[in-house]
Specification:
Structural class: mainly alpha
Helix content: over 70%
Number of domains: 1
Shape: elongated
Number of strands: 0
Distance between the termini: 58 Å
Order of helices and strands: HHHHH
């Protein structure tokens, strides 16, 4: 039987990454304290440093991307619905 991988919450990852970012302890010490592999500590620290500028971008940029579909997606949907409408109207006329 295969062993299921453990998944960590975002708050736990951020806690570990911030501890690594402080620099008070070595990566091995942090890994031992949180009972995880040292590679995970390094990966989470790197991920925090890469994504930190996005935290201060503002809500307008991130809100627009997630809530509004792009114009290409809208045109694609209009085309699909037009084809469906035409197909169904031909079926009803028969």
């Amino acid at each position: 039987m295969s062993k299921k991988r453990k998944q960590y919450s975002a708050s736990f990852k951020s806690k570990v990454a911030l501890a690594a970012l402080k620099g008070d302890q070595t990566t091995s010490e942090i890994a031992a304290r949180f009972e995880i592999h040292p590679t995970m500590v390094s990966n989470w620290k790197r991920e925090l440093l890469e994504n930190a500028p996005d935290l201060f971008e503002g809500k307008k940029k991130t809100g627009k991307q997630s809530s509004e579909p792009s114009s290409d997606e809208l045109y694609r949907e209009i085309g699909r619905l037009t084809v469906e409408r035409d197909f169904l109207s031909r079926k009803l006329d028969q």
